[in-house]
Specification:
Layout lengths: L1 H28 L8 H19 L28 E6 L5 E6 L3 E6 L10 E5 L5 E6 L5 E6 L5 E9 L2 E6 L12 E6 L6 E5 L3 E5 L5 E6 L5 E6 L5 E6 L3 E9 L5 E11 L5 E6 L5 E6 L3 E6 L12 E7 L6 E5 L5 E6 L2 E6 L5 E5 L16 H22 L3 H25 L1
Antiparallel strand pairs: 1-2, 2-3, 3-4, 5-6, 6-7, 7-8, 9-10, 10-11, 11-12, 13-14, 14-15, 15-16, 17-18, 18-19, 19-20, 21-22, 22-23, 23-24
Helix pairs in contact: 3-4
Protein name: Transducin beta-like protein 2
Pfam family, one: WD40
Organism: Ranitomeya imitator (mimic poison frog)
Length: 424
Amino acid sequence: MEAVALVAVTVLLGGIVVFLALWGRRAKEGGELEPGAEKANGEAFSEKQSAKKQKLRKPRKEKTQSHSFSHPLLAAALKAHSGNITCLDFSSNGKYLASCSDDRTVRIWSTKDFLEREHNCMRANVEFDHATHVRFSPDCRAFIVFLANGDTIRVFKMTKKNDAFGFSAAPEDFPKRHKAPVINIGIAETGKFVMTASSDTSVLIWSRKGEVLSTINTNQVTNAYAAVSPCGRFVGSCGFTPDVKVWEICFGKSGEFREASRAFELTGHSAGVCGFAFSNDSSRMASVSKDGTWKLWKTDVEYKKQQDPYYLLFTGKWAGKEPCRIALSPDGRVVAIASVCDITVYNAQTGDVEEEFKSYMETSSQILHLILATDFWSRLEIVAAIADMKDMLKKSTTKGTKDRLEQQIKDAQRALDDLYKQKN
């Protein structure tokens, strides 16, 4: 009996020892700690817990750094989009700016607020897609976008609900017709047609209802750029070949579409043309080429009466890189070229550099959309006009002409001073 009792006591003591060992191990691994061990093991316990939390926590996306671009002429930095800006467009009356982004929204900004602290905007959602291009309608009561995934045009019209204005999408998109990526879209100022151009050799002319009126084959191997003239009469394109081709979009007296006929060509570059631009009245055009030159052309010719299709006014040099775009001031006196991340502004009569914007864009992987404000163009146009009048004053021989030019120079200088005062 004594032997049995001794075995029982031994087993009981062994069980108690095992239980205490297991309980202590569990406490060290994350359970309750003994009062005396809390201070000693607190640091190790904290490290283990933080390591577990790090494993469970999802990795955070790095925040994109805000662009720190600054310039004396910078009016405002408009902030509302949460994604990359894909396109910008000023309305023809200069009152609004449209911006689209891959965040699936289009924002409409009022230019009168650009110099204020707050910049309010209207928002339009692009359902199940995002816009790569945006263009205002002539009356500013609608705009069109090209859809990245849908590969087609969507129309947004202005709506009013509870005394608040907004934009809503039309019930149906245009049918899909392009076989290659679209590089640009446009609306005629007359409102009679819509233009879309793709990177192959096709340019489509659409009715406002989404019917294809004409298909233009540019025969340029590939298209680099295409646009509608501000007057709404012409469509131009450029690409791999060293020329710019221009078509007239013809309508009948009752508004019916007739044809897209070849109007004229701008030839003179020695390499492919990257881009071109019209002046407001389409009497001037500017082009920029891979050959390192930009050219200013006179295009108000009666080509139907067999006049020369163009007259070259000036050839300037630029040392930029692709991608690049060119813009022409409303009166054709100033040329601006966007190249990768920089913008350079030239006097169209002398080729002199008037302004430079270095590192204007953060990324060089996207096509630049060169948009310059109206008052900025006005300053440079006045500067160019003053230079022209001073040159004419030197060549004038009559007192009456000299007096008139001197007065015009004074008036122009006064207007220029007023613009700078408004800016400051």
